Amino acid sequence: MKTIPTVVAAFFVATSLGCSAVKAQTIRSEAVEHPRIATAIRELEEAIRYLEAAPHDFGGHKAAAIRDSRAAIVQLRAALAYRAHQDRR
Known about the structure:
Elements: H1 4-33, H2 35-53, H3 62-88
């Protein structure tokens, strides 16, 4: 038999996963509304993969380019999340 803390913990995990799924779905719908932002995210992700696999460091700029590209992706996703939040109002 499961203990009450285990059941409660499972409930919170399931609830948070459900919220995450709804949030992800909402952001995906915003990506459809803003295809250039969605494309920019995909292109930045591909550029990061390319840079990470590259055997050279592009004159010392590789690490900063990867870092800044990741930061840009975070901001673009935040922009889509903001629009999703505004559209629900």
